Amino acid sequence: MKPRALPLLLVLLGLGLGATLLRDTLPVGGAQSTVTPAQPPTSSLSAEAGARLQNEQNTIEIVQRYEPGLIFITTEDRMVSEYGWMFGPPQEQVQRGVGSGFFINAAGDILTNYHVVAGAGVEAADRIQIKLFGGQKTVDAEVIGLAPQYDLALIRPRRGQLAPGDIRPIPLGDSDRIAVGQKAVAMGAPFGLEFSVSEGIVSAASRPIPIGFSLSGGEGITQLAIQTDAAINPGNSGGPLLGSDGRVIGINTQIYSPSGQAGAAQSAGVGFAIPINTAKNLLPRLQAARGGVVAAPRIGIVPGLLVQGPGGGQALGLSVLDPASKRASGLPERGLLVGTVQPGSPAARAGLRGADREQAIARGAGVIRLGGDVIVGAAGQDVDALEDLQAVLLDKQVGDQIELRIVRGNQTRTVTLTLDESAFE
Predict the structure, then answer these.
(1) N or C terminus of the chain with fewer C-beta within 10 Å?
(2) Boundaries of domain holding 212
(3) 175 carries an active-site annotation
(4) What GO annotations for molecular function exist for this entry (predicted)?
């Protein structure tokens, strides 16, 4: 996350460990009985290399080989205080943040979280700097592509600031092949402590949680994340989660705090990482973004239920409406109303129908467009909101087909929609 200031208190607890040797006299049944003296150990535990467990040695090798590909990220974003007028002329404030990232190729591309490098709105921070493992200087980095909905970003050192030998990519693995219980090594900068390592296991391979930031100002899109008990704290965001083969299986993104909220409190042993396959699928679009924003694929509809929110009109699902009102309008209990179908879009080619009438919601709270299809399922998953549909589309590519379950009038039917280039523009 990007806290303005993260106070750090390191408390050293000294534990005095003592041992008492108790010698008991064991009764024996005969005069000929003897006690065999204890034999000294055949090997000394003082030899560190010999004392290392196989798992320890594996962790050491992973760290030594791949930690040089880890990146420490700092950001600065200048903004004018909203309340400056109360105290005279507007005053500029500088918001600073820290996070992590890692090299993924010889060109110097660095994967990280969007929220690590984000500034105001969906833009990047005014200044992004990186520090390499073992280095003392920081260098400026530029944004190649931002994907707020995925909470992913691609940055790169500015041309000429690093030598080719400085770039040490970490190989990417296959997150579809991970197993619950396997080893997980998290790298990053918790609380700004640069180049730290923690270890745990994969606690769940496909945990549905909201990740990222909606372009309309709503919550993030629900994704299937990797859950791990490897310690992840503020500053770890954007760093790699590696398997026992040293390949990246995920990108550390958030934790579950003791208060029960996903956010930026201290670790409670429940952390989440974006599966690396999600990033691999998105990578070509990020590399071609030229500093712009990459959005989740779109099928070409405008939702039919819009309410006024802090960021303007927000699309909602039918579950928010009064049950009596839905019955009176012939609507299902849950689903995403199709208000408008854009010509030439995947939705139009699949035959989806938009609304034919519109009415205001009480007290000017928004509008509802009726008469169109209601999407109630996609790819076998229930749909009630735009985010539900986007979650199904997140890892899709050009040419993929999506099966939609829709309600039209009083009938439920299935249609197949094909994503083309227009869905990714």
Answers:
(1) C
(2) 175-281
(3) no
(4) serine-type endopeptidase activity
